[in-house]
Design goal:
The protein is mainly alpha-helical. The chain is about 60% helix and about 10% strand. The chain contains six helices and three strands; from the N terminus they run H-H-E-H-H-E-E-H-H.
Length: about 180
């Protein structure tokens, strides 16, 4: 019989909330913004996540994108179809292994996304300018380390591979 480990206590909310809770609030706000932006440009929210990975890391294989996003190959194919349809990405065969697909972000086509992001970038740069170099370093270190914990937990859960809730059974097709 497996035993569920005890959950760590959550810190109290409020002005002195732990950075963990503040990071969670940031994640929720970023998720909301991603959804609104995805709706505006006509793609799914996960499509913007894929585009963001490509923007940050350059061309990637479909397998690397599936690994980075946690998407199944089928879901990733749908995402890439949508990104190609709006002109944001291009798939090409890897010249060294034609069975492998390389996905490239089409930066010249991202004008609408850049335009939507511009006000946020301006306000975040202004916010950054309010920090001292030491504060900026401390915030950056915490967020980078927290991101590492998020990735490690995702990998742990993926390796565990079991669902906590059963899938809904499909109804038999009407005859």
């Amino acid at each position: 019989m497996s035993r569920t480990p005890p959950r760590p206590p959550l810190p109290p909310p409020g002005p002195a909330a732990s950075p963990f809770l503040v990071l969670r609030e940031l994640g929720e706000a970023a998720g909301l913004l991603e959804q609104v932006m995805a709706d505006r440009v006509g793609v799914a929210r996960t499509d913007l996540v894929v585009a963001s990975i490509l923007a940050a890391h350059g061309p990637r294989s479909a397998g690397q994108l599936a690994e980075a996003t946690g998407l199944t190959t089928g879901a990733l194919t749908g995402s890439l179809d949508r990104l190609e349809r709006v002109g944001f990405a291009r798939r090409t065969a890897d010249p060294r292994d034609r069975r492998r697909i390389i996905v490239t972000l089409r930066l010249e086509q991202l004008g609408p996304v850049v335009e939507l992001n511009a006000p946020l970038h301006v306000s975040l740069l202004a916010l950054d300018s309010e920090l001292t170099p030491d504060q900026r370093a401390m915030v950056g270190d915490y967020v980078r380390r927290a991101a590492g914990h998020f990735r490690a937990e995702a990998l742990r859960l993926r390796a565990e591979g079991r669902r906590l809730t059963p899938r809904k059974k499909r109804r038999p097709a009407a005859r």
